[in-house]
Every structure is written in C-alpha cells, then in structure tokens.
Queue: 2 jobs
Job 1
Amino acid sequence: MPVRVAVNGFGTIGKRVADAIAKQPDMQLVGVVKTRPSFEAEVAVARGYPLYVGGDGNVEEFRSAGIKVAGSVDDLFRGTDVVVDATPDKVGRQQAAKYASANLKAIFQGGEKPDVAELSFSALANYDAAKGKSRVRVVSCNTTGIVRAAAVLRAHYGVERWEATLVRRAADPTEVHKGPVNAILPTFQFPSHHAPDAQTIFPDLAISTTALVVPTTLMHVHVNHVRLRRPPATTEEVVAAFRETPRFQVFRSADHVEGTPQVLEYAKDHGTSRGDMMKNVLWEDGVRLAGNELFFFQAIHQESIVVPENVDAVRAMFNLAPNANASIAVTDLALGLRD
Ligand code: NAD
C-alpha cells in the first residue's frame, strides 16, 4: 500500500512538493489544500489532484468560482497517513495540534521553529534519525544548501571551521509586494539564523554565517570559506567529491554559466518542472583549495531545493527505504535529477 500523503498549503513549496509526491512509486497524493480559489487551485484540479478547502476558506467560494472541490480539510485528513505542511511561516505551528488530533504524521518547513518537530532533517545528513518519526521539519532552503555541502565536506575531509556569507534573494518571483527593489540590505544579526539552524542537524559543526539581501528573485548565492581537517592535495579532488554526490550540479568553464540567470535558463532548457533547480549549484571555477583553506560559491534555488528532502522525509518516517542513498535514488529518478 502506498503511503497516503496530503499537502496542506498549495503555494510556492506546496505545489512543488505535491507534484513530486505524485511522481513517487511508493506514495499516493490524496489531496492538496487551498484557502482561496485561484489559478493555482485550477492547476491542482487540472492535474487531477483532489482539492480540499482549509484555513478560513469556504467551499461555496470555490464552487461559485467554478472550481471543483472534494471537501474540507477534515474530510481529507480522514484518509491521510502524513501531511506535508507548506503553509506560510508560523501557520504550520498553529496547525500542529490539528494534525496530532487527526492522528497524522506531519512534515513542517523551515519557516517554523525547530521545536515544532522531533527533529530537523536533510536527507544527505540525517536520514536514519528520521526513521519512524512522527513530526519532522525540513530545514529552510539556505540551510538545506549548507547542510548538503557540509555532509560532503565532513565525510571526505572533516570541517574545522566554516564561515559563510549568504547573499539572499529579496523575494520569490510572485512576491510582488516584497523588496528591496534597489538596495543591498545587511542583516544585523550575528550569526544570521542559518548557522544555528544548520547546527540543529550537525550540532558540532563550527559554522558562522552572515547574510545580506539583494534585489533579485533568481536564487541565493553562498560565499563559503571552510578550513578542512584533512585536506586533499588538489582542488580537483574537492570538485570531484561534490560532483559524485547526488543533488549537486557542478558547472564546467565550458558551460559558460556566468551566474544565476544562466543556471535557471539551463534548468528551463533541460525541461525541468517549472524551470526548477533542486540541486546545489557549484562552478568548478568557483572552488579553490589553498592548503587547508577551501573557498567555494554555491547557488541555491529557494523555490525548489527542499522538494526532494520532503519526499525523503516521508520515506524515512514510514521506513520505505533502508537508508538515505536508497531513498535519494528513488526520489531523484522520479524527479529526473539523475543523469
Ligand atoms: P507561500 O505563501 O508561497 O504558500 C503558502 C500557501 O499556504 C499559500 O497558498 C496560502 O494561501 C496557503 N495557506 C495559508 N494559510 C493556510 C492554512 N491555514 N491552511 C492551508 N493553506 C494555507 O509560502 P511558501 O514560500 O511556499 O512557504 C511555505 C513554507 O516553506 C514556509 O515555512 C517557508 O518558510 C518555507 N520555505 C519557503 C521557501 C521559499 O523560498 N519560498 C524555501 C524553503 C522553505
């Protein structure tokens, strides 16, 4: 029997997670939840996803907009094993009691504080710890990017110290009321919240982060400086370690990918769903090892990087795969992330 998955909140993250769940061989997307009629609600129906009304929404509003709904969120939860909460920041926590009283396992997103769940999760880092758990939090886009890279560097070389500056996108492309439009905004928080968030997964990771927001919607970029414990002899070995790990895309010089616009153009040219880039993006020219000091840039597509992690979280919570590699292999094949 496939695990029955509901997605509560069908926005930027929810609609992508719903598509990803619908593609998995061992999961069934039993429904998605919206609060208001919209073109996205119509897309859900067109894709054959049963659409339910949640939050303060009402079924009549959908019916009068000509959008077919299957019922209310309570109807959906009666036939669900796990809910992926993809509601806005802090709304997930308000929903937690509802999930518990419906006897559902739940996956929360990085906009919630860590204590909403039993553990924070990223598949390459701590898949086994999520096995059989009832409440798991997939860390945010930036933290997912850091933790994936940390999983590689810790396993191969050990990490003595890591400093990262996060150049953050101002908004998602549809967030028309957010900014800045013409400014660079330093975040006056030391460290920024990303370092402690990464430490919810790797408590002993000696990392410090700072952040600034810039006027773009096209991905975040991290500027990393890492002191390795057991450095390899060459930069090429580090590049190879990233390249051979799932969920990393390392561009060559010959690809002529100068920055984030070309990364997303590459994704569109490869026909990925919504032009998404679910892998950490590195450039071989943007990695440099000098003794034990490693410098590298990585770009993170905020709208999609956490999507495969949500799928793996379901698999871990229901013991559907023996280990991280097995789960990642199934997820990534279904999502077209494997070469
Ligand atoms: P979003 O605003 O794009 O989507 C949230 C959706 O939930 C909207 O459609 C909204 O109408 C709906 N909603 C609101 N209240 C609801 C309720 N009570 N019941 C059901 N649906 C409800 O938000 P998002 O960007 O998808 O973010 C969702 C979560 O994912 C947040 O925790 C966020 O921090 C996290 N996240 C976002 C990004 C990103 O860059 N967008 C990246 C990683 C993680």
Job 2
Amino acid sequence: MAPLRVGVRRETTPGERRVALVPDGVSRLVAAGLAVLVESDAGARAWQTNDAYAAAGAELVGTDELYERADVLLSVGRPDPERLRSGQAVLGLLQPLTDPAYVSRLAERGVTAVSLDTLPRTLSRAQPMDALSSQASVAGYKAVLLAANAFDRYFPLLITAAGTAKPAEVLVLGAGVAGLQAIGTARRLGAIVRAYDVRPAARGEIESMGAAFVQLSSVGDAAGAGGYARALTEAEQRAQQKELGEHVARHDVVITTAQVPGRRPPLLVTEEAVKAMAAGSVVVDLAASPLGGNVALSEPGRTVVTDNGVTVIGADNAPAAMPTAASAAYSRNICALLLHLIDDGGALAVDPTDEIQAGVVVTHGGRVLKEATA
Ligand code: NAD
C-alpha cells in the first residue's frame, strides 16, 4: 500500500506567520512510514526553509499539487473548503464552536475535519496534543514583551546614580495557561504582579507563580465544567467590571487573557476603567476579536492610544508574532495527534468510540459529528 501522504500548507490568513509542521516533525512522520508533501515556502515566515524540509525528507510541491495529492492536510488556521475534496482529511485549529457554518461546509464536501481546539485537554494521554495550551503559553509570554515594549518606563526596580526607578505594577486578568505564563514572564522582568481569575482554583496557581491574588468581593465562584470558567450573569458582569475598574486604575500595565469556551470573550475592562488609568499605562488584550475582547477599547490587530494617554494593544493572534517557537510547539502537538489517528497499517482510522477522537473529529463521512461539537 502507498504510504499516507501528509500535506503541509502555507497559511493564508493575513498576518499568520506560523506553519503547522516544522522540519523536525517531517522527520518524525517519515520515520513513522508516512510521506510528507510541503507547499513551497510554507515555513518561510517562521524561518523554516524549503531546504530544511527537503533535508528532513519532505517533497516540496506547488499549491495545486499539494491540495490534489495530500490525503491529510496539516494546517494552523482554516483552509478554504472549496479547495478540499471528498475523502481528504484536514487537521487544524478549526474553531468549530464559533463557526458551525464552516464545519457544515466541510461535511458537505465529504472532508474529515479534525480540530485541535476541541481536544479533551484533561486526559493525560492527550497532553502532548494540546495546541491550545502550547499556543496560549506563547501568547502569555509575548503579551508581556509587547507591554514592556510599549511601556516607556522600566519593569524592574533600578537603583542607580541617576536615581531610583520604581518597578512597574502589572495586573493579569484571567489566569489560565496564557495568564500564568504572563505572570511568570512579568515577574522575570522584575515587575510587581497581581492577578485575578473567577475560578477559585486559580488562586494557588497565581501565588505559586509569585503574584498576589486579587480577591473581588462582588463575584463568587464561577468555575464551570472541565476546568474552564462559566459565563457570568449580567449582574455579576457589571459588579465585576465595577470592582475590577478600581484595580485597573492603580496599575501601570494590564494584560487580559479571559476566555469562556464557545462564547465571545467577557468584557472585563470598561471604557471608563481605561479612562481612569494614568497616562503612559499599557493594556494588552489577548482576547481581542472581531466580536469584542476583554477590553472595551481594544481592536484586533491594532494598537490605539487613548486621549488620556493609555496604549491599548489588541493582540488577537500573539502566537503568530512569535512564529518559530509557536510553530515548533504546534508541530509537536499535531504530530502526536496525527500519529494517534493512524492505525497499524498506516491508514487514517476514524474511531469515534476513542475518547480523544470523539473530541477532535468534527466531520466525517459527510456528517457533522454532534458529539464532537456539543
Ligand atoms: P481559557 O483560555 O478558556 O480562559 C483563560 C482564563 O480566563 C481561565 O483561567 C478562566 O477561568 C478565565 N476567565 C474566564 N472568564 C473570566 C472572567 N469573567 N473573569 C476573570 N477570569 C475569567 O482557559 P485555559 O487557559 O485554556 O485553561 C482553562 C483551565 O483548563 C485552567 O484551569 C487550566 O489549568 C486547565 N487546563 C488543564 C489542562 C490539563 O489538565 N492538561 C490543560 C490545559 C488547561
């Protein structure tokens, strides 16, 4: 039997610099008996050269040839369904929960869609496949660097002959994977860090990273299913925004990372709160999106400076701004998932009774699999 042909596409979303598989991943798949086709320049924006892919055992091909010959397409974002054909599989961050129409289109075309963002993350055997975590970790780190770069003072305490610089005070809102990485990074730069999350379990994690936990009196426990937060009621949201506003105004830098699965990000920092910040403060919103983010004034992909001198950075795709590290981690995740989906004969074997597959296989055999998107 001919080996399964795995294709690596060049991402087409504007601003996307990541690639789904790096040359190290090519070697791993080739060693597992698969053939790898790489679209020419697929990794160029993440500094992965065509030569490096070829040396790792990949065949470099043009765009049309890639879509024509690949049995399985590896992707970061969402390929155009019209380019895909029946029987082909695609693995990527397909966001099935926020765009059911895209998923239906893939099903209609007979494509098997496998989405890394619906992985059951708490299963320990799924952890090497957890791309949401690996990318959130890059985002949390990069958010601090973006903030530090836009902040016109020092992060650390500096005592010099020219005077003393007081340390920056950083507030991190949302302490999941990205938030904890942001706390660690800001601490390493010497800032004083405080953090808040609606899940009570986050307190211990925040403190173990060396930050102080901000306790709100107006909002209680909002832990939801699977370690995620639940959406707050409108009354809770208003109370939270009001109480958070007082903390926001006292900080030099605010980094927001809050998400609730399958919903628009919660608004944590109101326009009023940004207006109460001192000139020179910086806000980085990792949740910025076309649907709105955690910060009222943030715009995805843009940096705005308010009339009162606050720089608001809408960092909607921070992992793409650090594409080499993000791609290397994503490549490991997608290899682990792909190898999990392949049977002993080297073929893609869809088995919805497998707990991991039940989470990630979103369409197969012309149908949207309900259990995967539920
Ligand atoms: P996420 O991206 O869904 O959200 C980021 C954070 O925002 C979460 O901590 C959430 O509680 C918080 N949040 C949501 N609404 C909020 C609000 N209104 N105010 C303040 N904070 C709010 O989360 P994530 O980073 O993907 O992680 C979610 C959870 O899953 C965490 O508990 C994490 O430790 C856990 N997790 C576990 C594993 C594993 O077991 N292997 C892997 C990854 C994540």
